[in-house]
Design a protein that fits this description.
single chain; alpha+beta; three-stranded antiparallel beta sheet
């Protein structure tokens, strides 16, 4: 281990320092936490309005990750009767681990603006008379008439009339209540797991490969729920790269350029001088 890695680990062993790393006090918009949250959670029917609180629940340094290895074969028995058995074995023997410098679990208290999708009314009625295919199609906001006719082997408007009785349904959604960020009912609490890699130099390709490998390994080896509250879980851990700020100049890039590049790959890059 390098001096930079050792100092960074000792610094991040303090929960206050880890919290400051991912949610700096000077950042009132919580951009780093928002990036980490969006790497782990997708919100198909809600929007992240604000981050209220960040708590450090657990830290675990130098955690090994082993890629599982699967062996398979066939056992055939001929006496006294023919029997065939497929055998599969999964183990970790002989595999070298990949190391997470820090595995951390945070708890986020967030404010979500949720679309409840409540239905106000449902109306189903007969479609009524129609004299042409165009008139029939115009009764719908969207309808793939050509596809429907091809699927049911219908070629004329008369065949269309004889084939089925058509009903038109209309679902009206209720207008959502006015959103209030201060309403405690809009607060949710999410766990946020971090896979932190500390590197003493900045090789962009190598750092990205390490972060992608760590994410792939935790997805293969760590069981996790795929849905939580209003969110879909995309990965169990969000990757974080901790890099030395004094090594940025040698790359020929700026801190902002490196941050933007890694962010586009769903990796949070943080530059520090421990």
């Amino acid at each position: 281990m390098s001096t930079f890695v050792d100092k960074a680990m000792l610094s991040l062993s303090d929960p206050a320092q880890l919290r400051e790393l991912v949610d700096p006090a000077v950042d009132g918009t919580h951009q780093r936490v928002r990036q980490l949250f969006s790497a782990v959670y997708a919100l198909p029917f809600a929007a992240l309005h604000d981050i209220v609180q960040v708590d450090v629940l657990m830290t675990d340094f130098q955690r090994p990750l082993f890629a599982p290895r699967t062996l398979s074969g066939t056992w055939t028995q001929t006496v006294p009767s023919h029997v065939r058995t497929d055998v599969m074995y999964e183990g970790l023997t002989g595999l070298s681990p990949e190391w997470l410098d820090l595995a951390a679990r945070l708890a986020l208290t967030v404010v979500l603006e949720v679309d409840p999708g409540e239905v106000e009314s449902i109306l189903i009625a007969d479609i009524g008379e129609f004299a042409s295919l165009a008139e029939f199609e115009a009764k719908f906001r969207y309808f793939d008439l050509a596809g429907f006719m091809a699927e049911h082997h219908i070629t004329t408007v008369d065949e269309l009339k004889r084939a089925y009785r058509y009903l038109l349904g209309e679902i009206k959604l209720a207008a959502p209540a006015a959103f209030s960020p201060a309403d405690p009912a809009n607060q949710r609490r999410f766990d946020l797991n971090l896979a932190v890699l500390i590197r003493d130099g900045i090789d962009v390709a190598t750092c990205l490969r390490d972060a992608r490998l760590a994410r792939e390994l935790v997805e293969r080896t760590v069981p996790y729920r795929r849905e939580v509250a209003e969110a879909k879980v995309q990965t169990p851990y969000a990757p974080v790269l901790v890099l030395p700020s004094d090594a940025v100049a040698a790359t020929g890039f700026t801190v902002a350029e490196l941050e933007d590049f890694f962010a586009a790959q769903d990796v949070l890059a943080v530059f520090i001088s421990p």
